[in-house]
Amino acid sequence: MGEKNKKFCKESLVIKTSRVFPIDTNNHNTLYGGKLMFYIDDVASISAARHSRADTVTASTDSVDFLMPIRTQDSVCLTSYVTSVGKSSMEVFVKVVAEDLKTGERRLAATSFLTFVALDQNGKPMEVPEVVPQSEEEIMLHSTAHQRIALRKERRNQSKAFASKLTVKRLHDQMKLD
User: Fold this and answer.
1) For 146-164, what is each residue's pLDDT tens digit?
2) Is 130 domain-assigned?
3) Of 10, 13, 27, 35, which has fewest CB within 10 angstroms of its CB?
4) How far is CA 126 from CA 15, 57, 64, in A?
5) What is the pLDDT of residues 84-142, one digit of tens each?
6) Is 98 part of any domain?
7) Helix/strand/coil for 151
């Protein structure tokens, strides 16, 4: 690839900060995990689109590691950027920081890795630019991507094997009624 086909991680940077409202919380007065997962997929998809300048689809969410609860007195700040690429795929890292709005205390609340695929105008996977890390965090994430990629492939193979044993028939169609 030529020099023009490279982009810095920071070119795909997305930062989203939201207030945590009572309607977004569970019975423990902490942010619903599903709401946070929605935010994570949202910012990660923008990072992938900024990097590829194409339509993208979520191929996988490796994990969402909930580290600390996010409370109603907090804001939630998500930072995402592309950390590694394949031919048409992009690994996006999302860091979630909760901030107590009264004290200013900030804490790492969650992390996540997602994979997106860039699609051309015909909906087929298309080549994406290489990614160039610069900061210490970007370099660390980029240099450890090969380990996550190997785990991702193994997990995908296990998922396919598991899925091949499942049925899509309705439960009542499987039951023998007398």
Assistant:
1) 999 999 999 999 999 999 9
2) yes
3) 27
4) 26, 12, 27
5) 999 999 999 999 999 999 999 999 999 999 999 999 999 999 999 999 999 999 999 99
6) yes
7) helix
d(CA 178, CA 47): 56
Q: In this structure, what CATH number is given to the domain that contains residue 61? A: 3.10.129.10
Structural domain total, the chain: 1
Sheet order of strands, 106-119 included: 14-19, 74-85, 89-100, 106-119, 55-66
Number of Cβ within 10 Å of residue 154's Cβ equals 10
**Cα-based torsion angle of the residue sequence 53, 91, 46, 163 in order, rounded to the nearest 10 degrees:** 110
Instruction: Kindly report the pTM of this predicted structure.
Output: 0.90
Beta strand 74-85 with 14-19 is: antiparallel
Show the domain range for 59.
3-166
177 domain residue, yes or no: no
**Token pair of 22 as six digits:** 């009572």
CA nearest neighbour of 6 among 146, 148, 142 = 142
Q: Where are the beta strands (DSSP E) in the chain?
A: 6-8, 14-19, 55-66, 74-85, 89-100, 106-119, 130-132
- Asked whether 40 and 85 are in contact (CB, 8 A), the reply is no
**Residue 103: helix, strand or coil by DSSP?**
coil
Pairing of strands 89-100, 106-119: antiparallel
